[in-house]
Structures are given as C-alpha cells and as structure tokens.
Amino acid sequence: MGAMSTDTVLVVDDVPDIVDLVATVLAFHGFAVLTATSLAGAREVLAAHEPDLLVIDVMLPDGDGRALCREVRAARPRTGIVFLTARDAPADRVAGLTYGADDYITKPFEMDELVARVRAVLRRLHPDGAPAAPPDPVLRVADVALDPDRYEVRRGGVAVHLSRTEYELLHYLMLNEGRVLSREQILDRVWGTGQRSGSNVVDTYIGYLRRKLNALGPDLIRTHRGFGYTIRDTEGSP
C-alpha cells in the first residue's frame, strides 16, 4: 500500500465503474473518499462535507463540471481540484485551468498517475504534509484588509467605505488573489446569473472600487483587456 493520507477526496463522475475504480484505488492509498455521479449529487455532498480535493469529470448528466469547479474555487479557494475527462484538446485544458482547476487528466488514464497527481496537488496545498490550519478570516492583499466577520475594509489601517456591491466585488477578487477572473465569472458571483453578459456593470464598479482604494495607495487591480480582472500586490510584479 502507498503512503497513508488523512485527506478526503470527492470523486464526481457519471460512470459508476469509473467512480468505483477511482474510489477503491484512492481508499487503498489511505484517502477518505466521497462520491457523486452528478452536479446535484456533488453539491449535496459538499453541503455536508469539506473535502480537501475534488476529482471532477467535465461532462456530467446535469451540466458542465467546470461550473462546479468555479463554485468550489469561489467558496473554498484552498480546496484542490483535478479534472478527469475525455476532452483532451489543448483549448479544453486551457479552459479547465482557467476555471480554477489545479490539474487536468485525460481519459484513458493510469491509476498510478492519478494518485500521483492527487498527491502532488495536496502537497502544494499542505507543504508541511499536514492539513491546513483554519484560515484567518481576514483577507489581505498588500496593505488592503477585508474582514468578512465585521464587514469591514481597511487600507493601511484607514477605513474604506464601500457600497454592498463594491464590497462583494472586492471580496471575490481577494478570495481569488492573483487569479484572472473573467467578466462573466464576476457577473455570476456578484450580480447573479440574471445579469446580461453584455453589460458593462463590471467595468463600472471596478472603476468605483479603484477610485476608493487608489485614494490610499497604488493600484492593485489589474485589467486584462478582452477578458477580465485580477487583484495582486504590486510589489515585485512586472
């Protein structure tokens, strides 16, 4: 048997034989394993458990597994995500990683490779070999601190007064520090799926947020033209 692990993995695939095989092998290597065969089933599992890593098929009977990836990445940024899919085109790989996956394995695959990839992602998440300690609820990027418990934002110790929408926008950006978020992702998260994709509301509120933050320091929000935005510390960046 391989090295034991205390990590929990959720396997999501609509083919029962694949779910059983992957679950059996991961359990053999010491992982605690949860399973689901649909997006709905995966969401039910996630409502009751906090797995350390998800192995997700892209093509599921009730939707695209990348939607689940996006939800998990927004709500649980420290959870590992590995796509397991028959879609092997370079564009599919890029799309999967853009949605926030840590790795992308194509079918057919070797079980030893899957186990090795899962372990590699978990090592990056927990470099000391132990599960991560409960995170500090305060999010920080450079000298900006967002406290979700107090619904408070400060820059350099000075309070920044934001509207609810500006706060939610900053919160989402900071949860995904360094990750480029598309306008569509931001619309879905901050305004909900009912907002028209062609709207310039994201650009408008990025402008509002920038003005308030930049009054107290350098610009931390990067524009990626034709795609979206990211927030990152300007120190040492190109």
From TrEMBL:
Sorted UniProt keywords: DNA-binding, Phosphoprotein, Transcription, Transcription regulation, Two-component regulatory system
GO molecular function annotation: phosphorelay response regulator activity; transcription cis-regulatory region binding
Domain Response regulatory residue range list: 8-122
UniProt KW Cell membrane keyword: no
DNA-binding region listed in the record: 136-233
Stretches assigned to the OmpR/PhoB-type domain: 136-233
This protein's record includes keyword Transcription: yes
SUPFAM superfamilies (alphabetical): C-terminal effector domain of the bipartite response regulators, CheY-like
GO biological process, one term: regulation of DNA-templated transcription
Highest taxon in the source lineage: Bacteria
GO cellular component: cytosol; protein-DNA complex
Regions crossing the membrane: none
SMART domains: REC, Trans_reg_C
Annotated positions of the 4-aspartylphosphate modification: D57
Name of the protein this chain belongs to: Two-component system, OmpR family, response regulator
Organism: Nocardiopsis flavescens
